Q: What sequence folds into this?
């Protein structure tokens, strides 16, 4: 996925049509001059798997709100993304709840979007935990200045109950992202390289899908969705350059050309990822 700056393109997002419609409804309310419309904008309950663009979605949601002046006050930082820790130490939860104030440029207040992932939790044990009670209190205390994106995976076993409990504290809309598979991965790389004038023959496209089956394990912890696919696309492009196959302005890649560079293409499987930080990101 491309990095979000100060603009967004809902129609150009690689997400399901119904999810685009959710963002378009939020955009419509955000653009209305009446304050009552802006106050009706919901937070988001997002179901998505690793690598399907949940962070990108949250950034676009934040850009819609910021671009249309929804925040009462705007500081220099308006986006925060964290994993809600499971089995963390007391200082981990203190750090979690303190993070909005840490990034806020307005004293003691963070105005923006706080994306919270429950990826470390399995289901009902989250809802019954003391930590979750503390989170609900945090939501109650900040719902006038923070819009939330709550993300769960499809394996989460208590989605409806979690959604109901959260909705008792803050207005929510539900959204879903598609699940990564080799068809989606192939299409993404074809589009990515196509933007640089590199196309594939019919047999080349078929070979690219086989190539990804051989080179990528979509269930691996090293695979991080569109970011990993972009790395693979860049590596393919580099190896084509190394072969001096892109000396022309445009290039059509055949199955033979792809096989010739396959052993040199770098994939996430060549990099070991260690651990998972609980800390915050403000990108």
A:
């Amino acid at each position: 996925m491309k990095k979000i700056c100060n603009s967004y393109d809902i129609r150009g997002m690689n997400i399901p049509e119904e999810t685009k419609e959710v963002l378009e409804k939020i955009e419509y309310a955000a653009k209305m001059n009446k304050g009552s419309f802006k106050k009706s904008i919901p937070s988001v309950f997002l179901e998505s798997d690793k690598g399907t663009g949940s962070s990108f979605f949250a950034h676009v949601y934040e850009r819609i709100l910021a671009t249309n002046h929804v925040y009462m006050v705007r500081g220099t930082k308006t986006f925060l993304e964290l994993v809600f820790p499971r089995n963390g130490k007391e200082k981990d939860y203190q750090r979690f709840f303190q993070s909005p104030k840490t990034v806020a440029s307005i004293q003691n207040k963070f105005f923006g979007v706080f994306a919270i992932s429950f990826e470390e939790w399995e289901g009902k044990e989250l809802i019954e935990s003391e930590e979750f009670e503390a989170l609900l209190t945090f939501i109650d205390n900040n719902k006038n200045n923070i819009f939330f994106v709550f993300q769960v995976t499809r394996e989460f076993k208590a989605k409806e109950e979690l959604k109901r409990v959260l909705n008792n504290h803050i207005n929510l809309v539900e959204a879903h992202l598609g699940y990564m598979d080799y068809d989606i991965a192939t299409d993404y790389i074809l589009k990515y390289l196509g933007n640089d004038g590199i196309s594939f023959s019919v047999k080349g496209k078929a070979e690219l899908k086989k190539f990804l089956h051989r080179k990528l394990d979509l269930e691996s912890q090293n695979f991080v969705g569109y970011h990993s696919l972009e790395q693979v696309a860049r590596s393919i492009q580099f190896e084509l350059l190394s072969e001096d196959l892109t000396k022309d302005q445009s290039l059509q890649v055949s199955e033979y050309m792809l096989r010739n560079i396959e052993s040199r293409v770098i994939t996430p499987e060549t990099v070991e990822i260690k651990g998972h930080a609980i800390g915050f990101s403000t990108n």
In short: The CA atoms of residues 127 and 162 lie 7 Å apart. The beta strands are 43-47, 79-83, 112-117, 146-152, 172-176, 198-200, 251-253. The two ends are 14 Å apart (CA to CA).
